[in-house]
């Protein structure tokens, strides 16, 4: 009995916490948002949810290079279980839009492929997302 409890305690204490769970996204990037296409979002340190179409579980956050790596929810209508790179950038002078994002790649076969995807072009946010504009995000009051 004691061996089982000891083993269970060791396993629980040795379990790793995903990198995204240890890091907190910037406050300006979490909460409820709508984009300039009318899609609503709920974003936390661990989930990026496009209300209705898709859910992404955040696995890593690269603050310096401004991107998130996520795994697509298995229940997503397309690309379920695959991996996504979400590049983002804060905006200045575009109020009420605070920031924008780009699904740089949304169907990578693994996390390494998503990580290695070419970054979105933040110098040209109107076409830097694979030829399309970054989706602009404003907070829902």
UniProtKB/TrEMBL annotation:
Keywords: Signal. It comes from the Bacteria. Residues 1-20 form the signal peptide. This is Lipoprotein. It comes from Flaviaesturariibacter amylovorans. The lineage of its organism: Bacteria, Pseudomonadati, Bacteroidota, Chitinophagia, Chitinophagales.
């Amino acid at each position: 009995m004691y061996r089982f409890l000891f083993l269970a305690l060791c396993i629980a204490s040795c379990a790793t916490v995903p990198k995204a769970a240890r890091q907190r996204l910037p406050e300006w990037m979490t909460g409820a948002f709508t984009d300039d296409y009318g899609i609503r979002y709920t974003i936390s340190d661990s989930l990026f949810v496009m209300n209705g179409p898709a859910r992404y579980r955040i696995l890593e956050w690269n603050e310096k290079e401004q991107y998130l790596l996520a795994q697509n929810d298995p229940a997503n209508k397309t690309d379920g279980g695959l991996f996504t790179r979400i590049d983002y950038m804060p905006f200045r002078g575009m109020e009420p839009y605070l920031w924008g994002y780009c699904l740089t790649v949304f169907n990578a076969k693994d996390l390494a492929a998503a990580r290695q995807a070419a970054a979105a072009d933040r110098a040209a946010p109107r076409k830097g997302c694979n030829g399309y504009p970054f989706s602009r995000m404003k907070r829902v009051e």
